[in-house]
Structures are given as C-alpha cells and as structure tokens.
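Q: Predict the assembly, please.
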Amino acid sequence: MYSEHKYQGDPASTAEELLMNVSELEETGNVVDKAIREGYFTLERALAAYRLSEIEYLAYLLLKNKGAFSTTTKEVQVLEVISYLVSVYKASSAYFAPAGKKVIQELASIAPPLPDEEVARLAHAS
Amino acid sequence: MDITPQPYTFTTADCQRIEAWGYSFDNNEDLITFMQTGYPNFNLAALLSVVEELFPPTTALTIRRLIRFNNSTMELLIHMQNTFTDAADALVFKRVFDHTQEGISVKHEYCVVPTAHQQQGLIKRVFQESLQQYINMGLKTIMVHAGLTAGGYAWARHGFVAIDPQEVDIILEGARKRLISSDFEFVEEIYNSYYNRNPSGTEFPMILWARLPFMKEVLAGSDWHGVVNLQNPEQFRNFKDYVFRT
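A: Predicted assembly structure:
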C-alpha cells in the first residue's frame, strides 16, 4: 500500500465537488474575461468561441458588478448599465437594421462604450 | 474570503494527537524537528483533524495511516487509505510535500471519498483547511496529474496550468482529429497565441480550452500535469474562490 507508485492525481469527482455552487454562466463569463484581458480574443470572438450570447454576457457582467453597483447612485447605475450594454452590442450592431443602429448610436452618445479589455478588467476587478 | 497566514509551532502534543488517530511514523523527536525546520507554520494536526473528522465515518473498512518524512530530501508523505477492493468504496487522502528550487510544493496525489459520500461538501472542507495550511507555510505550487477518471477536463476548469508543452501538443492533435475545422480554429488560436508569446511556456492556460463547449470530450480523455501557483495572484484567487464557495 505505501510503496512508491506512479504519480496519480486527484480524480474528477474531487474537482467537481469543489465546483459546487459555481454557475455555468459565471465559469464561462470568467473565461471570456480572461481570454479578452490576456489578448487571446476580442469580445466578439470570445463570445462566439465560448457560445455565450450577448444577453448572457451582459447578465454576467451585471451580476459580477452588483457589489460595485450597490455603492453608486441609481443614476450612475443607469449610465454604467448603458455603457455595458453598448460595449457588449457594439460589434453585432454593425449588422442591425437602421433603427437598431440608431438606438445604439444614441445610447453611445449618452454613455460611450468601453474598450473590450476594460469591460473584462472591470468584471474581474469587482 | 481572505486567508491570512497563521503562525504555528509543531509540538509534542501534535505528535501525540496524530499518533492517537492511528498514524504511524518513525520517531517523534525527529518529526518535531523536521516540521519545525522544514515546514514552519504548517499545523499538520489541524489539517488531519478535519480529515479524521470527515473521512473515517464514510467507510466501514479498515483504514491504514502513515506519515513518512525524509530529513535529507525534506519530502513529507501523508497517506490514509481504506482497504477498498471496489473503486466506489475507495477512501484515500494522499499528499506529498517537497522542497523545490522555487519553494515548497505539494503533489495532490489522491483524495477521494466513497461514491455514496461524494458531492456532500466533505472534500471542500478538507481543501479549505489544506489551503489555509498552504498559506501558513508559504507553499508555492499545488501539482496535480490531471487524467485519472476524467480529471483532465475537471482540473482544467479550476485554472490549473499545463506545465509540459508536449502534453499540450498531444491534446491539440487530439482536438484536430475530433473537431470540425471551425471549432478547432478557436483551439489552435489559443495554442498559437500562448506559445508565440511563450515559446517554452510552462503555464499553458488549460481553462481557456476547458470552457470551449466542444473541448469537453477531448479533455475528458486527456492526460497532463498541471499546477496552481499560489503566489500568482490570479491563479490563487481563482482556486481559493471556488474552494471557499458555499
């Protein structure tokens, strides 16, 4: 029993138990952030690679930042949420119909989009 | 949750507690000196008290326990295991601490509870206490051989980085054979991006592969050696956040 043997490793069941209470959305959102932050993918390409929709990533960003949001006024919250919304949709809005494009442009004039890296960094920092 | 290092001095009383649980070792005085000099601030009795509280009630089989230490290599082995014949009944806790050029490391050799007791939080409690002790002793790296019973996929999700480029190459080739080209593009893009920046890199971010939905099957059958560097703020934070999540 105690003799030397080939180095094994903790099994999958052990790793999975440690991941209890971590949602799919959080796990995938964290990886999307890392891929963007470290320059592997743009936001648009990261969402495509990890099969995450814009709406899912937006939900992840808002949940991830809820602690930071809670310390700001509701007015600031609205502006920051618009900024996230525009940031997340800025790539796909190139394919929107004119009315949709106008909405994004109007929102961007209120709260300019953030660079991809900044969105990922803010989510990670909170 | 923050983990702060807690100073501790290993004593004769610790030896007595450990012996009372049934661990055998060669010589009390030697172990005290070994722990105080080789692994200062490691409260071994605190870690084993969690293991002994949670693990033995999961089995009716006989449990064998051993602590082995080597004063010249500074290796420390902790091993408790029941006399299972069916893998579903296996109860094992095995850790090997060592001193490398970079600092103290631990090999997570095997930690499993019987199938009927999995996913109940027992492992999490043991990992939480382990991490506290790793911080106490200033441990640098946790090493795992990801591959046993689909661990290749599961440990990648934890942020363990792959240290051997040859093992990463094998996984890449497996992906090339199994995936459609539009999916494989993403896999190769991550690989090229990392190794172009780090030609002999030993910290390949497996997590970026693991969350690609089409990579689950490829990684589930993979075999690679990974580490988490506890002195790397991002790797430490990711691992700690999952271990302490309730």
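The two ends of chain B are 11 Å apart (CA to CA). Residues 145-232 of chain B form one domain.
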